[in-house]
Specification:
With 272 residues, this protein is an alpha/beta fold. It contains 9 helices and 7 strands, in the order ααααβαβαβαβαβαββ. The protein has a 7-stranded mixed beta sheet with strand order 3-2-1-4-5-7-6, with helices on both faces.
């Protein structure tokens, strides 16, 4: 008895990826992993695309909008966002999900004392101050007096100006004064956020690590630097400084490091 002929390829039922439900493309027998990724094929014996096996989800504009819809910005923070989008270098503002994460961490830690280096128009400082208790305090360091005045107006309008101590000037010098201070200013801090001059971040990091209590957090922004940290052709001073600090934090036995791809990448350093 003759075996039935297989149906034409076009009529055969297509296998589906169990994650995205798209049709699977059979993988060439000797295909390399990069080829599989390029072709969207499934692994031999598998039932999903290699791209769907990735440990992260590509953040499209539509997906980001969906995430933001799940956690809307409070009106006070949205006011800062709307103002900042029209100012030069408005991209320097922290992302909403980043500041929401900070607020959650501050509340979980029971933090009372915080530091921010690099205020800009005051978005992240506002979110941090809102998460602090009534007797909490945030020292906010900013070298530009004009943007600091803008930030202070937003803080006062949101009703948290009394929690924030703005410090104008060179952050390295002003923080050094804090380190040498006495009384209430000498009390350890719970939390520090560094988002300022990238070439000075190593100094900021060391200063904040000295100021923060054991169990406290030092968070550094822009550790992925828009992907430039892995671009071998990018060797400008800022990129080199960020790579240097990243390696320093990685090997620093005084902290427990967690890097998250939130915003432009943040390094959370829990002081041991």
């Amino acid at each position: 008895v003759l075996s039935p002929m297989p149906p034409p390829a076009s009529t055969r039922p297509a296998m589906q990826c169990r994650w995205c439900e798209r049709a699977l493309v059979p993988a060439p027998r000797r295909a390399s992993l990069p080829q599989l990724r390029r072709n969207g094929a499934h692994l031999p014996g598998g039932a999903r695309h290699v791209a769907c096996s990735s440990k992260f989800t590509n953040m499209t504009e539509a997906l980001y909008s969906y995430v933001m819809d799940l956690q809307p910005e409070p009106r006070s923070l949205r006011n800062v966002s709307e103002y900042t989008k029209d100012v030069p270098a408005g991209h320097m503002k922290s992302s909403p999900e980043q500041v929401r994460l900070f607020a959650l961490l501050l509340k979980l830690m029971g933090a009372r004392r915080a530091i921010e280096i690099g205020v800009f128009t005051g978005y992240s400082a506002l979110g941090i101050a809102q998460a602090l208790p009534g007797d909490g305090v945030l020292y906010a360091f900013e070298r530009d007096p004009e943007v600091l005045e803008v930030a202070k107006a937003f803080w006062d309008k949101a009703g948290v100006g009394h929690k924030i101590r703005p410090v104008e000037g060179n952050a390295v010098e002003e923080i050094q004064r804090l380190l040498l201070g006495d009384g209430a200013e000498k009390e350890p801090f719970d939390f520090a956020f560094i988002d300022a001059n990238k070439r000075a971040q190593m100094t900021y990091y060391e200063q904040c690590l000295e100021l923060v209590r054991p169990g406290g957090l030092v968070i550094v922004d822009n550790v992925l630097w828009y992907g430039r940290v892995v671009d071998g052709e990018r060797n400008d001073k800022i990129t080199l400084a960020i790579r240097e600090l990243n390696e320093h934090m990685k090997n620093d036995e005084r902290v427990e490091l967690t890097v998250l791809p939130v915003g432009d990448g943040i390094a959370l350093c829990r002081k041991l």
